[in-house]
Amino acid sequence: MKIIKYSIVGLGLLIGLNQTVSAQHLYGQMVINENPKLLHGNLTKGSSAELFLGDHGSILQKTNELWKVGNFRGEVGAKLHISVIDNSNDFGTRGLFNIIGTANGSTEIVLDIHNSWNGMPIDLVRAYNAGSDVEAFTMQEATYNGREAYLANRLEGGDRVWFLAERTPCLPLIVQKRNNTLVVNNNPESNGGFNFIYYKWYRNDVLIHE
């Protein structure tokens, strides 16, 4: 495996096949267009840096997976472009960013996604450290194939995974029934993600029950 050592500053870079790159800072653009790829060493993305995973705009898209050994930090304004053609088959038509370390800072994920997205979750970034900042990656909510999509995250063993998810309509937290009865919806799958441990009930701003 070929090893290239340098600091990536203010330039566009195309990483080829089977290369291990030791890099410290990225302020320009870097494109990952073939597999496999491995970046070694801590990496900080500057506010103007853009990292592309995928052959964007191509219907014949390949799997574009980047492994990062070391910690990753994105400054506000940094962007991670990930291509997702279709997740209805097993042909690996998506980009994935694997971080063997901690992810922190703030990096915006920009998706290039096929209009046939079926709403199934798609993993986009995995950090092999559960202590990574939840807000290390963000994404603007958008509508694909008539489905409202947002960036969710989960803990999976010792890993933090950020994934594309479909936002489903939420039921009200409190529903009024007959005979002056109020019912609380404590199902996080239908109330927007809330899971209450206890309740405090007020009437005219006066606590009546806890």
Verbal overview:
This protein is mainly beta and 210 residues long. The chain has no helices and 21 strands. It has strands at 2-5, 12-15, 19-22, 25-26, 29-32, 37-40, 43-45, 50-53, 64-69, 72-84, 95-100, 103-113, 122-127, 137-138, 142-144, 147-156, 159-166, 174-177, 181-184, 201-203, 206-209. The strands form 4 sheets. A 9-stranded mixed beta sheet has the order 1-3-6-9-11-13-17-16-15, with no helix packed on it. Strands 2, 4, 5, 7, 8, 10, 12 and 14 form an 8-stranded parallel beta sheet that branches. Strands 18-19 form a two-stranded antiparallel sheet. Strand 20 and strand 21 (206-209) form a beta hairpin. The N and C termini lie far apart (63 Å). 24% of the residues are buried. Mean pLDDT is 76; it is low at 1-18.
Number of helical stretches of at least 4 residues: 0
Helix fraction bin: under 10%
Low-confidence runs of at least 5 consecutive residues: 1-18
Average of per-residue pLDDT values: 76
Instruction: Report Rg.
Output: 21 Å
Structural class per helix/strand content?
A: mainly beta
Total E-strand runs: 21
Shape: elongated
What is the rounded distance between the termini? 63 Å
Largest sheet: 9 strands, mixed
